[in-house]
Write a structure and sequence with these properties.
mainly alpha, 517 residues, globular
Length: 517
């Protein structure tokens, strides 16, 4: 139950961060809308975040956390901290050189990330300029991932989970304060991303010092442990980051479509990120240290149980989320974003992409549940092979489906490739006898489906009488949407309790248990 408690801790902070993120995106939509300036900014925002998720939160975390946990178990806390300091020192040097190089190569890099901008006299130079401002964010946020990885491995999930809140609060404040004083809202947002990276780093440095974890910078050395870290990171760049690579492919292909496609995909993805972030990031963050510890201690049955409970928890929250996003997708987009530069056409286009992304929501989360089972065993080679297959499938589907469904086809291709990824990961784990679906999970899955069907019928019935689109005034529309969301959640919870998809005893145990292993 410590696993579940950790998931709840990380998920709670992530949920708060996503709420602030929604406020941020509401302001972005109002100031930028879905025009060429918005497209240029979203490319500038996605490029450093792509590398962050690929290197820092993907490959680095997948390799660093098991090695840190191993040293913590075998050699003690001080040896583990020495390893963390060595990793921090090497990463600072590598990232500084990497960021500097890409700043120089940014115009050529843009031809790769947004080839559709090449002949656009407005979007191309603006995207290059804005990305040069946002790209140093990668350096700061990658260092944040090291400090966060140490804290998570030591069971201090709250501080690291609260870090993204700093990003969103900084962005919200600066959007309102700095935008009137800069040449455009896009420039204001770009500088805010840069500043937010510094704020997040300062926060975790402070927390680590408060906890007595002094991670200073020794002289960089390629020790045996660091070489092993890089060896594990190399294939993990693709293995842990397949979703990010697919999203990058989405941006590349979307840049070839008419103006607005990148923005439609951004806003729809942001809505999907609430359940994905709360559930997926929480489970992935909490599960990896637990699995690493259990496998290291030879507790295979405990690791299998943790994996099944992680899947169970993921399905419990994502399946009803998918259903709700289908039933009230347009009201959600309209209430959140339709104001200022964001008009009715953008609402329809974004809600269509949202439904397509939603079909892959359980898969996006299950990838984050299944992948740690490989990483905990220091196996990053298998996920990379699967990742290569999925990237190829996503690329082919993007090209085919965008011809039929425009930007919606791009979102649908990402969802399909994510399900293929889940299928292949589970097949590999089952073949190695490292995963079997236990009876409890099978029963819970059927009950979750029944509870979701009950929620869908009730939510659809309520939305017939309380449709936010039929109310005048922003306050009334927000209130009606809140009624729909909380009614849907409450009805699902009620059906879940009645059908035993949700066990009250598990919730009680969550707050009483003190042992995971």
């Amino acid at each position: 139950m410590v696993l579940l408690r950790s998931i709840i801790t990380v998920g709670s902070y992530t949920f708060i961060s996503r709420i602030f993120g929604f406020i941020r995106d509401i302001l972005i939509a109002a100031f930028l809308g879905t025009g060429p300036i918005a497209d240029a900014f979203f490319v500038a925002f996605k490029i450093p975040n792509f590398f962050r998720r690929l290197f820092a939160e993907g490959a680095f975390s997948a390799a660093f956390v098991p090695l840190f946990a191993s040293k913590l178990t075998d050699e003690g806390k001080q040896a583990a901290l020495r390893f963390a300091r060595a990793a921090l020192s090497i990463m600072v040097v590598f990232l500084f050189l990497f960021v500097t190089l890409l700043q120089i190569l940014m115009p050529w890099l843009m031809y790769f990330f947004a080839p559709g901008f090449a002949d656009d006299a407005a979007r191309f130079p603006l995207a290059v300029e804005l990305t040069r401002i946002t790209f140093p964010y990668l350096l700061f946020i990658s260092l944040v991932s090291i400090f966060g990885g140490v804290l998570n491995s030591l069971g201090r999930f709250a501080a690291a989970a609260a870090t993204p809140i700093m990003l969103n609060i900084t962005l919200i404040g600066m959007i309102l304060l700095a935008t009137p004083h800069l040449q455009s809202a896009a420039h204001s947002l770009a500088w805010e991303v840069f500043l937010a990276g510094i704020v997040q780093l300062i926060w975790l440095v402070y927390i680590c010092k408060r906890e007595g974890l002094f991670l200073h910078l020794p002289r960089p050395q390629l020790s045996k442990s660091i070489r092993h870290l890089f060896k594990l990171m190399a294939p993990g760049i693709l293995g842990a980051g397949v979703l990010q690579i697919n999203q990058l492919v989405d941006v590349v292909i979307a840049s070839l479509l008419p103006t607005g496609a990148i923005s439609f995909l951004y806003y729809s993805d942001r809505i999907c990120q609430l359940p994905l972030g709360v559930v997926g990031v929480a489970i992935g963050t909490a599960l990896l240290p637990v699995l690493s510890r259990q496998i290291r201690n030879g507790n295979d049955s405990g690791a299998l149980n943790s994996l099944n409970r992680g899947i169970e928890f993921a399905l419990l929250l994502t399946i009803p989320a998918v259903a709700a996003l289908f039933v009230i997708s347009q009201p959600i987009v309209s209430v959140l974003f339709e104001r200022g530069a964001f008009g009715p056409f953008a609402t329809i286009a974004t809600s269509q992409a949202l439904m397509a992304y939603a079909t892959g929501l359980p898969a996006f989360v299950l990838i984050k549940v299944l992948a740690p089972s490989f990483f905990a065993r220091q196996d990053t080679a298998t996920p990379v092979k699967i990742a290569l297959v999925c990237v190829f499938i996503n690329l082919v589907l993007n090209i085919v489906l965008m011809q039929i469904f425009s930007h919606v086809g791009i979102a649908l291709a990402t969802a399909i490739s994510a399900w293929v990824n889940v299928f292949l990961l589970s097949i590999c784990l089952r073949a190695r006898r490292q995963f079997t679906v236990d009876t409890k999970l099978k029963k819970r899955f059927l009950r979750i489906l029944l509870a979701t069907l009950g929620m869908v019928f009730a939510l659809w019935s309520i939305s017939e009488f309380f449709n936010p689109l039929e109310f005048n005034g922003q306050g009334a529309r927000v209130g009606v949407l809140a009624i729909l969301v909380f009614s849907g959640g409450g009805i699902y919870f009620l059906f879940g309790i009645l059908l035993k998809a949700i066990e009250i005893n598990d919730i009680k145990t969550l707050f009483k248990s003190n042992s995971a292993d």
